[in-house]
Amino acid sequence: MADRPRTTELIEALQGVLRQAAEPNHVLRTILEQAVSQTGAERGLFVEVTEGGRLEYRVLHGYAPGQLEGDVDRYSRSLFARVIATGKDVRLDSVIDDPELAAIESVQELRVAAILCAPIRSAGKVAALIHLEHRKPGHFHRAPPRAAAVAARRAPSRCSRRAAGRTQGDR
What we know:
The protein is α+β, with helices and mostly antiparallel strands and about 170 residues long.
């Protein structure tokens, strides 16, 4: 129960930001930064799932341009597909302990141990993902309960607005 006030503070902070921000990418960056801050993640992504199922990396924290290509992209997409299919958070103490992901060549080279990936639902489907990483195995067991998911609950209206803007040609 000691984590409850921190979670409540996070929700209140995110609500305040969402009320003030007009630029969707600014809001998405703020949501990702709150999730990174609350969990102590070293890096993270805000990934939008388009109507056609394509993944678009909207906001990056701690990644270099082009870092999510090739085999690394295969690893990410495999994990993201799992979260989209189940609609549930994936928390891994060590990515190399996951049989499906460990089979991907670059996983050993990524220097990533702990993973936390949470879906963002909008209109009854997964509209986006918050993906967090840390090099220390088990890192996300120390994070506030469902911190990424709490941040994810604040994002659906912004994802819906982005999709609406896209359908009107506003990109």
